[in-house]
Design a protein that fits this description.
With about 150 residues, this protein is an all-alpha fold. The chain is built from six helices and no strands. This is Tc1-like transposase DDE domain-containing protein.
Length: about 150
């Protein structure tokens, strides 16, 4: 899955320094953290950072987990690893090659989506796997070069 904002909705807000001190205390206490008074905001944030990884989750990831699935996220700025980009490109080409009037675009979009067949989707996925393999090959080459440079 890519990292689009609608795929990356947090399950809950995690305190940041701009939060009011009492709001941070309330959040920590709701997570079972004992907060001794007096305490400065900086020390509160240290407590937040210690437990943040256990509470900083995405809604879609939790939904998938509850249904026995695991969400794998694409690295940022690597749309070439997302087969939906190839499907979307196919739909846009279909619309572009068939559109004469603006009012026709919506109907052509629907037809363009229907035009993306299971075989096309399979080919998109295979293409992305090949691109991913190239990245892995480059990773190994880069590692070898870096090892040689360190010698």
């Amino acid at each position: 899955m890519d990292n689009a904002s609608y795929h990356s909705v947090k399950k809950q807000k995690i305190p940041v320094r701009s939060w009011k001190k009492q709001a941070i205390i309330d959040w920590l206490e709701s997570k079972g953290v004992i907060v001794t008074h007096p305490i400065v905001k900086n020390d509160l944030m240290k407590k937040v950072y210690k437990i943040k990884k256990h509470h900083d989750t995405y809604v879609i990831d939790e939904y998938a987990k509850d249904n026995g699935k695991l969400v794998l996220r694409l690295p940022p700025y690597h749309c070439e690893l997302n087969p939906i980009e190839l499907a979307w490109s196919s739909v846009k080409s279909y619309v572009h090659n068939n559109t004469i009037k603006l009012k026709d675009v919506m109907e052509l979009l629907k037809k363009g989506v229907e035009h993306v067949s299971p075989d096309m989707w399979k080919n998109f996925i295979e293409h992305v796997k090949k691109v991913e393999d190239k990245f892995w090959d480059l990773e190994h080459i880069t590692d070898e070069l870096m090892d040689e440079l360190r010698r």
